[in-house]
Amino acid sequence: MEELVLIAEDDAEIAGILDAYFSREGFRTVHARDGQVALDLHRSLKPDIVLADITMPRLDGWDLLAEIQRRGRTPIIMITALDEDVDRLQGLRIGADDYIVKPFNPIEVVARAKAVLRRAGLTQAGAVIRVGNLTIDLDSYQVKIEKDGVSVALSLTLTEFRLLAQLARTPTKVFSRSELVDACLPGSDALDRTIDSHLSKLRKKLEQAGSEGMLLSIRGVGYRLAVDP
Hints:
Layout: E1 4-8, H1 12-24, E2 28-32, H2 35-45, E3 49-53, H3 61-71, E4 76-80, H4 85-94, E5 98-101, H5 106-119, E6 128-131, E7 134-137, E8 142-147, E9 150-154, H6 158-169, H7 177-184, H8 192-208, E10 215-218, E11 222-225
Parallel strand pairs: 1-2, 1-3, 3-4, 4-5
Antiparallel strand pairs: 6-7, 7-8, 8-9, 10-11
Helix pairs in contact: 1-5, 2-3, 6-8
């Protein structure tokens, strides 16, 4: 395992503990003591995953998360002392892949980071899912829709991408909200309304790209894709 972990944490002791546990599991690590340095390191080193504290100097974790999301789809785990549902929901809505509250067990942090990396498909090189006029490239994280001979690229958050890929793997299946949480946001304590929020935004992006009615909500059950025969 050679994935690079960017640890954005202003507490040197906590960063040192995380570094030791990740290094023990074969990861490479790099440490940033503030959000701006973390952003610079993200641009130059292109880490495979970011662990970000929320309360950091110069640039806080929310701003760091938002900027990394604008740049692409690097998986991000928020690590914070804030244990309020509103903070957790905010992080997941913006696009965080997991949310861990201090004090934490570093062994659990490593395990959850591995799970996030697996979900992000870092080991699935070249895999492509095609459903109707939809093409999902799991390696490049690109989603395209063919409409009237024109290919339209969708700009999705990582969570939206994972949800769409999960639905597309079995397009005739109706997925319950709990199944989507388990498959795409395990360990995050995500609520049903969090999934609804992500899928509502995904539906709008699909509609704007010309795929009206592709993402269906099945009342009382969950969600599935509508695929033209």
